[in-house]
Design brief:
The chain is of the alpha/beta class. The chain contains 9 helices and 24 strands.
Length: 424
């Protein structure tokens, strides 16, 4: 049976690959990052069950790495797509890792000895990594990558690696894959909170994004699971979540709801209440959208836990003489309220992946006005595109939660399986 190419190896791409491999289809999983896993690998817990995110994802990542039908292409990107359903030729560019992938065993000795520290993008910029590093401890493949932009060529890593796996020079390479179908699971990027000046994200260190908060809450994150003000390292006495930052905002071209922000703010508030019982926790919102199974009960649980919900959006976040100050109109009471939180968390929305336009052009499929991929039919054919043999799933189509991403992954995988069987 013919191969299938999956572009993007977050939870959606991983699930689609596993479903296809379970039917004996050879799958090529293309991922531009050094590890598969996507944004889900950055999360601490998942709503509404508060299960550990990596406890769900890591076994799937390991299943992918061990499956003989799945071929992982990390540090790679698709540069061209030619052909038609059943006979696609996909050109892949593999970017240099500066590591011999056959020799590296992921021991981490080179990481320990490296003297260079830079901001860690996996930790949303609040942690540090070395110039030679693994994205996180459960990375797949379990090998390091060298960052040539920050490496000072001190030579310590070359000396300590007895397997001689670290390369002084490396070049990218291009190759082609023949496939019967293509599944696009490129996911999303997080809205840049710096684009909303009124929230002072770039002005005050104690205004952080929800992703930065996730990395703080994670026991393997930069603070070891402790919530700290970045200004002084102290635990705040009060926290305010601001909803719909980069969502439902026509003024910045983001008119859509990002679907997950209400629930992940409630999740994070509940986790805070569990860890810090005396903390004052407030959520400022437009509307609470708890639409999924168990979500309304999760919301009620937060109310019963003493988390305060104020229906109203702040005009700005300003300096409050040692804390932050937020003035907000409670639209349910009509009263103005002044909040003085020690930490403000901006619940940022989802945006299309930055390479969506490029991939859409290569595949000759349209995007929505919002920049997400357009389905053939939003009601009855959500994973198909206007081009036969090319499918799309997960947050590449629109913002959605993990269960919906996994469900769409299965749907896209089965459509690709039918194409593969047809081609024999």
């Amino acid at each position: 049976m013919a191969d299938v190419v999956i572009i993007g190896a977050g939870v959606t791409g991983i699930q689609a690959a596993l479903d296809l491999a379970g039917h004996g289809i050879d799958v090529h999983l293309i991922e531009r990052e050094p590890s598969i896993g996507g944004h889900m690998a950055q999360l601490d817990k998942t709503f509404p069950t508060n299960d550990c995110s990596m406890c769900i994802l890591s076994p799937k990542m390991m299943d992918v790495s061990r499956n003989p039908y799945i071929h992982i292409h990390t540090c790679s990107e698709v540069t061209a797509v030619e052909g038609e359903a059943g006979h696609f030729t996909v050109t892949v560019k593999k970017n240099p890792r500066y590591i011999d992938e056959e020799k590296c065993n992921g021991c981490g000795d080179c990481i320990l000895i490296c003297p260079v520290e830079v901001y860690n993008r996996f930790d949303a910029g609040i942690g540090v990594r070395k110039a030679i590093y693994k994205p996180h401890s459960q990375a797949v493949p379990d090998i390091v990558i060298k960052d040539p932009e920050h490496c000072i060529e001190c030579g310590l890593c070359y000396d300590i690696c007895d397997r001689e796996a670290i390369l002084k020079e490396d070049t990218g390479k291009e190759y082609t894959i023949e496939a019967s179908s293509i599944i696009i699971t490129t996911g999303y990027r997080v809205f840049d909170a710096g684009n909303k000046d009124q929230f002072s994200y770039l002005l005050f260190p104690d205004v952080i994004t929800s992703l930065e908060f996730e990395r703080m809450m994670n026991a393997s994150g930069p603070t070891g699971g402790q919530i700290q003000r970045l200004s002084d390292g102290k635990t705040p006495e009060s926290v305010v979540f601001v909803q719909c930052v980069g969502s439902r905002d026509v003024s910045i071209g983001r008119p859509y709801c990002s679907c997950v922000c209400c629930m992940y703010a409630i999740k994070n508030a509940l986790l805070l209440r569990e860890k810090y019982p005396d903390m004052d926790i407030t959520i400022l919102y437009m509307d609470i959208r708890a639409y999924g199974k168990g979500y309304e009960e999760y919301y009620e649980r937060a109310i019963n836990a003493g988390i305060r919900f104020i229906r109203g959006m702040p005009a700005e976040v300003i300096d409050g003489n040692g804390s932050l100050a937020i003035r907000v109109e409670n639209t349910e009471t009509g009263e103005m309220e002044l909040l003085m939180p020690g930490l403000v968390i901006l619940s940022v929305g989802m945006e299309p992946a930055f390479d969506s336009e490029k991939i859409a052009e290569m595949c000759e499929i349209p995007l929505e006005g919002t920049g997400f991929f357009r389905s053939a039919d939003e009601k009855v054919d959500t994973v198909a595109t206007v081009k036969p043999g090319i499918y799309v799933a997960g947050t590449a189509i629109s913002p959605k939660d993990i269960p919906d991403c996994v469900a769409q992954a299965g749907a896209a995988a089965m459509r690709a399986f039918i194409d593969s069987e047809r081609e024999g």
